[in-house]
Structure formats: C-alpha cells, structure tokens
C-alpha cells in the first residue's frame, strides 16, 4: 500500500503562480494540490473542506493581507505554511515578519521570466514542502513579546568567536540565540540558508532586536566583539586572519551541499583559523550542510553544540552532525545562549590557570 500523498493548498492572487505551483507540485510522486484559492477569504473554507498538510501563501493579496491571515491561522488552526515572496525590499521584510508569525519557510518569486524561474525552483519547492509536512510546529513570536532577560558576559578576549549555521526554521532560531546575548559578547559569524536580497533585511531586523550589533558581512572587514556578521544570501562567508586580527572573507565559489552560502564552508574555515578559540553551533534545518564542518571544528579543539530535536523545526542538519560525532553538546534552543556564555567563561578560566 502506497503512502498517502502530501496535500497542498495554494493561496495566491496570481492565476499564473497558482497554475505553476499546481504543475510543479502535481509532477511530484508524493504530493498533490488539493485546491487553490485567489485570496485568504476563499482559502478559509477550502482549509476546512480539504484539511491540507501544507499551505503555500502569497505575501501581498487582496481582501485580506497575507500576514493578517497567517496570524489568525496560527492562532486558530496552526499548520505548516510556506510563503511565496517577491524579491523586493518590502517583500523581504514582510516575509521575515511572516517567519516570526509562524511560517516555516519561503520561496522567492523570480522577478523576470516567471514561468522559467518557477520551474527552476521546482526541486527546491518540493523539498521545502516535504520538510514542511514533517516539521514540528513552533510557538509564533508576536509583536508585543518582551525581549528575553540579558545574559551577563564574562570578560573575554577578542580571540573568542561563536560560529553559527542554520537553514529551515533558522531565522527565528538565530534570533532566539542572539537576542539574550550581552552587548560585549564575542564576535559571531552566521551562515543561514537564504537567497540574495533577504539577508540584508534579516540582519537589519536582528540589529533592531538585539543588544549586539548585527550586519550583513562585507569582504575583508575586521571581526569585532559585540558584533554578528551574516553571510550575504548568494556568497560564501569564511573566517580568515590578517595579522593579529580575524577578518570576514566572502567568495563566489561553487555551492557546497547545494548551498551558497554553505554552513560547511564557514565551519571548515573556523576550524582552520580559530580552532579552540571558536564555538560551533548548528541549528534547525533540512539536509546535512554543516555536519562535516562541525566535526572538523570539534577535532580542531572547538566546543560544539547541536540544537536538540524537540526544539528544532526541522531536525535534519543537527541530526546529521550528531550522527557524525560533531556535536559535543546537544542543547534545547532556549538554553543555547546561556550555554555559550558558560563555555566562554570556562575557556577564559582555563586560559588564566
């Protein structure tokens, strides 16, 4: 007996996008579009009628804004939602808000050649729908959520670094790690799987929320305590040395594990350049990117942490890292910031002995 197909409901005011999503999804052997809707009002009855496993949702629609609909949906009938977003500054900011409200992930609409562009994304769309169908629901963050209590940082040298990698579900997981950190936390380098055009908005949003400064990384800039540097959405980020200083380096090398930026690329460079001065953290995400790199960091003397299964939206990347032996600690997401400060404090004591 064959397994039941993943049931998908597509909500988009563009008939062309609805048709293309239907074509892409129905071409997969394990999923099917059970209904389409031109707006959220029409979608409400279709959700009750078809009980879909996953919803694809446009950001900007008539009759009811996609964000308003998403917020109500997550409150009344939580389900996996994949946003279909426009590649604009406004589109990226709305998409990041959707992720805060509980959307699992997003795909970007091509700005030109919509049919050929969407077809180029067909494998990515199918993979994200599969991940969504298997994902673990998480508590949405709302506008009035108070910030977490600030952690205290031990006195640390500028040599200490925190290196973070994430994918599906990672935008909110990264926020949960960074937001409690004190303004004098060690320097942080981050690779989050995200297309170009979205990472700048992601960094700006985190910068508004966090006590540390958060920015999109630029090539050759010095890596400083109290700052987090996010890989641009279409370039690899690596750690390098320039004399006595650490610097961020960007490159346009080929995708690794089908990703650019790749977590493995960042982790490999941290193992090589920082060794025991770094802490590696792998967060929620599908696939295996970062597993080999985290193992290399551990072998080079770095402390290493994997997010635990219970707190992951998608446990793929942490599971692979744990299976390979790369994770010295397996930790719930809300405990990772305090664990980082504890590791920094203990390394400082070890250096003074």
UniProtKB/TrEMBL annotation:
GO molecular function, one term: phosphorelay response regulator activity
Example of a GO biological process term: chemotaxis
SUPFAM superfamilies, per the entry: CheY-like, Methylesterase CheB, C-terminal domain
EC category name: hydrolase
Comp. bias intervals (Basic residues): 132-144
One GO location term (cellular component): cytoplasm
The EC number(s) this enzyme carries: 3.1.1.61, 3.5.1.44
Family: Belongs to the CheB family.
Name under which the protein is recorded: Protein-glutamate methylesterase/protein-glutamine glutaminase
Organism of derivation: Vreelandella arcis
Highest classification ranks of the organism: Bacteria, Pseudomonadati, Pseudomonadota, Gammaproteobacteria, Oceanospirillales
């Amino acid at each position: 007996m064959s397994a039941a197909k993943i049931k998908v409901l597509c909500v988009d005011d563009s008939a062309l996008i609805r048709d293309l999503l239907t074509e892409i999804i129905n071409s997969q052997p394990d999923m099917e579009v059970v209904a389409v809707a031109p707006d959220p009002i029409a979608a409400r009855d279709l959700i009750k009628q078809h009980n879909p496993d996953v919803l694809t949702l446009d950001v900007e629609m008539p009759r009811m804004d996609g964000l308003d609909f998403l917020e109500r949906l997550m409150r009344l009938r939580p389900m996996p939602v994949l946003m279909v977003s426009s590649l604009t500054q406004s589109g990226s900011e709305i998409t990041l808000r959707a992720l805060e409200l509980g959307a699992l992930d997003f795909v970007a609409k091509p700005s030109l050649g919509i049919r050929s562009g969407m077809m180029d994304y067909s494998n990515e769309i199918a993979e994200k729908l599969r991940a969504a169908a298997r994902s673990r629901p998480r508590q949405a963050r709302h506008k009035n959520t108070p910030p977490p209590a600030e952690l205290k940082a031990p006195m640390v040298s500028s040599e200490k670094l925190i290196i973070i990698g994430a994918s599906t579900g990672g935008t909110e997981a990264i926020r949960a790690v960074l937001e409690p950190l004190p303004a004098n936390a060690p320097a942080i380098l981050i690779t989050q799987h995200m297309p170009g055009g979205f990472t700048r908005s992601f960094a700006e949003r985190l910068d508004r929320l966090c006590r540390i400064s958060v920015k999109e990384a630029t090539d050759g800039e010095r890596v400083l305590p109290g700052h987090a540097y996010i890989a641009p959405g279409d370039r690899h980020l690596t750690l390098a040395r320039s004399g006595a200083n650490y610097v961020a380096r960007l490159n346009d090398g080929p995708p690794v594990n089908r990703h650019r930026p790749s977590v493995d690329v960042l982790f490999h460079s941290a193992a090589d350049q920082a060794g025991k001065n770094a802490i590696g953290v792998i967060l929620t995400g599908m696939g295996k990117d970062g597993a080999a790199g985290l193992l290399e960091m551990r072998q080079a003397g770095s402390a290493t942490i994997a997010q635990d299964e219970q707190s992951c939206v998608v446990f793929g990347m942490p599971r692979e890292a744990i299976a390979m032996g790369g994770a010295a600690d397996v930790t719930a997401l809300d405990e990772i910031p305090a664990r980082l400060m504890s590791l920094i404090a203990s390394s400082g004591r070890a250096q003074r002995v």
